[in-house]
Design goal:
By secondary structure, this protein is α+β, with helices and mostly antiparallel strands. It is about 30% helix and about 30% strand.
Length: about 475
Amino acid sequence: MFDVPVLTGSPARLATSAWEIRVADEGQTRAYRELRREVFVDEQGLFDAHDRDDIDDDPRTVVLVAMTPTGEVLGGVRLAPATPRDIGWWTGSRLAVRRGARHAGGIGSELVRAACREAVQRGVVRFEATVQERNEPLFTHLGWQRWGRTVVAGAPHVRMRWPIDRFAALVAATKLPLGDVLSGIRDDHPEGLGGPGWVGDDGALVAGTDVVVATDAILPALIDKDPEWAGWCGVLVNVNDLSAMGATPVGLMDAVSAPTASAVRRIVSGLRSAAVAWGVPILGGHTQWGGASALSVTAVGRTRHPVPGGGGRPGQPLGLTLDLHGRWRRGFEGRQWDSTSTRSGDELRHLAGLVPEHRPAAAKDVSMAGIVGTAAMLAEASGAGARIDVSEIPAPEGIAFGDWLTCFPGFGMVTAGTASMASPLASSAGIGELTTGSGVVLRWPDGVETTVVDAGATGLGEA
């Protein structure tokens, strides 16, 4: 809990420049704990002898302190994961300011703001505190929202939550404009945007055939920063799109542009490496230099049993299958997980065959919208909402959970109707269910549910 002391004491004020907030080292943490004893034991009488608890012994706990240039700790606060496995749910607690510094330019408020920034930087997606009732106005002023009441040590407290819109913001930036941008195409032709039952899919099933076609473009910024990786990803994302529809790739076409022939050669090198790894021929395309960087790849696949992205129904289990092998791609930490470049061709083809083998009711590969955003797209296309149990989501150890939920994971499939797809190379689990309504709700281990995507992710509506 954030135990904020009453802001009374000496009227003297210190300039804000007389102190700064930093992550505490071992000695500063000891000084912070002594300050807590002075405030919560000696001054407020909330505890008998000390206020230490299990959070102090958790090595993941982060302490922020307000320090003077001479090293005096004027105040501090701590934040830590709320669960044994860090799933992005953290709490802030033990906010304390030295009696003589409570008019020193708003130390308490700045510590709270710093804790919020620190939480977001560490990939936290649910950040809360239990505060004394008399301090609710302070937190409300800082943007916190009340969501409950409780009693601690016989004193009334308020449960407060710092709003983090990471998922909604990502969906809005990457997917939400699609409905408006593509409006009308659905009505131009009976097969527009895939036709009834297939709107919003990762690829397009050619009517009357077993052929599936998928196309993706790579962002110019990625091409300029890492041309070989851009070429690799051009194949990777298209193979994933075909796989999500239950198809096996049979050929690739590409369009490549770069300022110089040397730059084009690097992009093509990445394309060739990936095509060989997945065993798919590059059939042809268009290549030029002397212009801006650009790369788009079209993949052709075949399937007798196509899997729609919008084939789910309320009540069906929601599954997630991820390759946790690998690491962050250098230069794209927190955004792109490279699980594929160190896999063998046989391993890559095995993973690409999971959806065709298991044939779930619906499937979508985890894309730029991340795990939560992709689940929102599958639910929208299925005319449903989604409830996700956060603690059931597989993740690599030692990475920020919020980053994992919003990154491109290399290989990841969200499915409906099939809780898991067994594989020796991937982690697969049931992570919730499709529901009536719309949007995505996260369900936490304490039973609390938080809405993170209010409605449809793309605006394209039901498939």
